[in-house]
Structure formats: C-alpha cells, structure tokens
Amino acid sequence: MDKPVPMIATADIGRVASELLQQTWSGRQIVEIEGPHRVTPNDIAKGFSKILGRPVHAEVVPRETWEALFKAQGTADPEPRIRMLDGFNEGWIEFESGESGSIKGEVELETVLKRLVER
C-alpha cells in the first residue's frame, strides 16, 4: 500500500505523443513516461478522501482471488494482468533507465482524481 508506482495521466500521454510526432528522428525510439510523482495506493485513497470529503481506504486484495475477480469484471484472460501486477509488486517491472530516466508528465494525481469524480 506504500509502494510508489509510475502512473501517467492520459492528457500527459497525448501531450508527449504530440511533441514526439513533431520531432525529427529516425529508427526506433523508446520513450518512457510517467507522472510528475510516483504514487501509492494510499496516495490515491487519500486523494479520493480529500475530494469526496469522506474517508477512503485502500485495501489489499488477496492474490489468490485475482483470477476470479478479474473474470467477474469481464476479463476473458486475466493472466497478463496478473503477471503485470506481480511485476510491479515484486519490482521486476521498471523503466530501463529507472525513475530518473523517464519523461515526467505535468498533470498531478489530484487533478486526475477530480476529473474522475466529476464524470
């Protein structure tokens, strides 16, 4: 609940993609982008608490329940999602250059959460 992970706002993805499309380069380019700060599940819960004006708490979902839960949510094959979550939780999914080598977005977590609540 306290492990920070990279997340990115869709607005930042669009902005960075637009900037990259205007650049001149050749060959293959790998661009790693993330938000201005890495966030934890507790950060997200705290942000929702502030916006909603009531307590919100993040809770651990036991790994052994993931497959059934994801299938109940409509995922036909939950294995790739489970492997991705394992990768973040175990630390083997990380940007090649680490946090210091990624392009940082501008949109803060609170802005994204406010937009979600407004919809």
List the helices and strands and how they pair.
Layout: H1 10-21, E1 33-34, H2 41-52, H3 66-72, H4 79-90, E2 103-104, H5 109-118
Parallel strand pairs: 1-2
Structural class: mainly alpha
Elements, N to C (H/E): HEHHHEH
Helix content: 40-55%
Main-sheet strand order equals: 1-2
- Which class in CATH terms? Alpha Beta
Shape annotation: globular
CATH topology: UDP-galactose 4-epimerase, domain 1
How many helices? The count is 5
Number of strands: 2
Mean pLDDT: 94
- Which architecture would the CATH scheme give at its second level? Alpha-Beta Complex
Spans of at least 5 consecutive residues with low confidence: none
Biggest sheet details? 2 strands, parallel
Task: Please name the defining characteristics of this protein.
single chain, 119 residues, mainly alpha, UDP-galactose 4-epimerase, domain 1, two-stranded parallel sheet, 2 strands, 45% helix, 3% strand, globular
Q: Would you write up a description of this structure?
A:
The protein has a single domain (10-118), classed as Alpha-Beta Complex (UDP-galactose 4-epimerase, domain 1), CATH 3.90.25. The chain is globular and about 45 Å long. The chain is built from five helices and two strands. The chain starts with 9 loop residues before the first helix and ends with a helix. Helices cover 45% and strands 3% of the residues. The protein has 119 residues and is mainly alpha-helical.
